[in-house]
Amino acid sequence: MASKGRPFLVVVAHLLFIKFVTLINPQAVDLDAYKKKLEEAIKIYERRLSQIIWRALPQEEKEKFKHDKPVSYVDHKESLLQGLENAGWPITYDEVMLLEDEILTGLTYLHQATELQAASREEAQRICPLQINPTKEQKRKMFDALKGKKVVARSECTGFYYPGIVVRTITPFYALVDFIKGHTEIVPLKFIMPVGGAMPCPSLQVGDYVFVRIRKQLGDEHYVPGVIIATPNKADLEDKLYTVLKYNNRKEHCVRNGLIKISQRRYTCSCLCIYTSMCKMTYYQTRLQVKFQEE
Asked: How confident is the prediction for the chain on average, in pLDDT?
């Protein structure tokens, strides 16, 4: 399904990785034009993926979105994957991931091209500092509100939220996050939540939606969605524990600094993300079992 788009990104990648253009662009590649083509390709891939999934969905699943035209895969990924799951995967999960991987590859190359431009300007400034003046576009790019911020962000692998630090914002919709547990992912901004510092700490009541911190014995921690079902007893000053009913219908007791208040929409979306990740694991395990039996 993604074979038509693959040659373009491979050629583009080749241009970028000719010795990474020695990091100062000695071959004078027009990186602005290159980035523009990448952005256009990414939009085409996103639109194509949205259309392919929309055509594969049965009418009853389409009606849930209340749209007559294909909805954006980027904005409705979890719901669309859930629709495909409900329909018995009319197109395979692997086919969907092929195109999604192309989109992420394009975003990665776009990020690298931006870094290359910055390196080129720094080198030119070092060689001839008086002749280089930052443009308005450069000044605008210097401000990255999330860069270096502590966050909790969703991992595509599990659907859980993990602590991390934003390396930088890549596009208006994605950021590169360095997770504390040891890996880096490109994460949609809507799945990133700043924490720490002067962040508000609203009071919590029964029925509020939260992310509850789960700590493992080895020091790893992550956050899962839940609902407050009991608050500390105000008459007992020693009682500081909230009781949370987690997404899997299990209870968790946690102090206030281990809870992050969220909206009902984020709660629902997070539960769906976790379910989708579990479906992926089940899907691959089933395929492996079938393949093993065939052999």
From this structure: 77
